Amino acid sequence: MKTHMRFHPRFHNKTGTKKGSFTMEKATVVVIGGGATGVGILRDLAMRGVDVMLVEKRDLINGASSRYHGLLHSGGRYAVKDQEAAKECIEENTILRKIGKSCVEASGGMFVRLDSDDPDYEQAWVEGCKTSGIEAKHISLDEAFHLEPRLSKHVVSAYLVPDAAIDGFRMSWQNVDSAKRYGGRLKTYTEVIGILREGDEVHGIKVRDYFSGEEYEIGCDILVNAGGGWAGKIAEMAGLEVGVQPDKGTLLAFNQRIANHVVNRLHKSSDGDIFVPHGSITILGTTSMSIPDAEDTSTSREEVEKLLSIGEQTFENLRDYRLLRCFAGSRPLYMPPGGASGRGASRGFAVVDHEKQDGLKGMFTIVGGKFTTYRLMAERMSDQVCAKLGNHEKCRTAEEPLVPQVSEEDKKAARKYFPSYGTNLAATRLGPERFARVVDTLKREPEKREIICECENVTRAEVEEIAKELSSYKINDVRRRTRLGMGTCQANFCALRSASVFAKCGHDEICKDSLGQMKEFLQGRWKGIRPVLMGRTIREVEMTRGLYELVFNVNGGNAQ
User: Fold this and answer.
1) pTM, to two decimals
2) Which of 125, 134, 140, 265 is the most buried (most CB within 10 A)?
3) Which domains does the chain have, with CATH numbers?
4) Cis peptide before 286 (omega within 30 of 0)
5) Distance CA 531, CA 253 (A)
6) So what's the pLDDT on residue 412?
C-alpha cells in the first residue's frame, strides 16, 4: 500500500522545482548533520547570504555534541602532544565566551600533578602552554587546597588555566536561532538515505521522514557532509571513502558539585582524569575506546568502576557522592591513511573537497575536531563552500553574538514570577524574545507558574513555549532545550507532569501520545542509571519503577 506524505510544516518550503508529479525541495547548500559543527556551518553560511538547509535524522545535538564533558578547553590538555590543537582551543575559548555568554560557566580550570605523576611532563607542559599562548599560573599548594578543599593530599603541584564549562545544547540551538534570522532552514527527524549524483557531480539527497516513513528528494548545488561519527557512512552513499574512526568515551555524572574548577590531572592524557562542574553537578571522564559503529553508546558497570578507581586518585572521597548516571558518546576521529587510533589520534579536524580528492563535484566532508573548535571548523568549511559559489562575504561568526542577552532590567522585573533562582536560568535558556513571551504568560496566567521540573526550575509556561515550536516532537526535544529531567532526580518526578503538558500543547499528533512520550522520556533517563545501581540508588530506582509501573502502567501490563 502506497503511503502518502502528510502535510506538515517540516515538508513545506518556499523554494522548489517540479520533478515528475511532485515538487522537489531545493537549497543552494545542504548540510547533513545537526551536531555542533553542522549548526555552526548553517549559521556561518546563512550570515554570508547563502541559501542553506540543514537536515538531521533525529533531534539536534543528539550525538557526540551532547555526550561529552561539556568542557570549554583552554588547550592545556593538548599543550604537549598537539600544540596546533592547543592554539585553536585557546583562541576559540576566547571567542565563544564573547559570542555565547549565556552558554558558558566561567569556572576556571586547574591542572594538578600527583606525587605519582612524572615531573618531567610538568615541565614539558609548562613550556607547551607558553608556546601555545595559554596562560598557566602556578599557585601554591595552600592556595590550591583553599580553592579545591576536596583535592587529594597527594597533589604536589597546581596551575590555573582558563578552562570553563559550556552548555552544548544551548549553544547549538542559539546557532540555529541565529541562522534562522538570516534565512537558514532546518529539518529535524529527516534521515538521509541516498545521495543523488549524475556522473561526476552531486545534485541532491534522498531523505526519509522519521515519523511518516515518506521518502522524498532535496536538490542542492553543494552538499556538506558534517555527519560526525556517521560521516564515513554518508560518504559511502556517494561511493566515497572517508577515514572516520568512532571513538567511544564514557562519563559519570555526580549529584554534587565536587569541584569548583574544571580539574585536570597533569600527566599524559588518560582515562578518568577530568572533572567538570556544571551547575549543581559534576561530570567525570572520559574513556577512549575505538568502536566499529558510532551508534554504540552502551556503558557497563566495569567502566563505572574504572572511572571511579582513577578519579578517586584526584578526589579521594569520590565514592561518598551519589552517582546520577553513566553515559557515553562517540568522537568522530579523523583517520588518514596510516594514522594512529584512540588516544594517539589527532583531536584536530580535516576538510575534504571531494572534487579534488575523488573527482566528485559539489560535495565536501568535514570530520574530527571537538566542541570547543566547532565555530572555527564551520568557518573553514564555509570558506571553501563560498569559494566554489563565488561568494566573497567574510565570516562574521567570531564577532556577532549568537543571540541578544536578556537585559538586567527585564530580569529584575520578572523575578516575582519565577522561583528563587529561576529567573536567570530561564533567561539564559530562552533568550529575549521567548523570555518576554514566557513572562507575559506568567503575568496573565498565574497557574502556569507551576514548577514542572524542580531540579532545573522549569515552569509550565516555559515547557509550553518550547513544546509549541515546530522542532519539538518529543519530550526529549524539550529536554534538550530546557534541561527538563536532567537534574538530580533524573526525571523521576517531572516525567508525568511534562507528559501531561506536552500532550495538551504539542503541535503534532505525535505529541498527543502522553503514555508513549512518558515511557520514552523515562527510558532515556533510566538507561544511564542502570550501570550505576549501587547503594541507596537501587532503593530509589525500585521505588520509582514501582510507582510508574503500578500506578501508571507504563509497561502495558494487564490491569487488575
Assistant:
1) 0.91
2) 134
3) 16-63+169-243+348-389 (3.50.50.60), 98-164+248-328 (3.30.9.10), 409-551 (no CATH)
4) yes
5) 12
6) 96
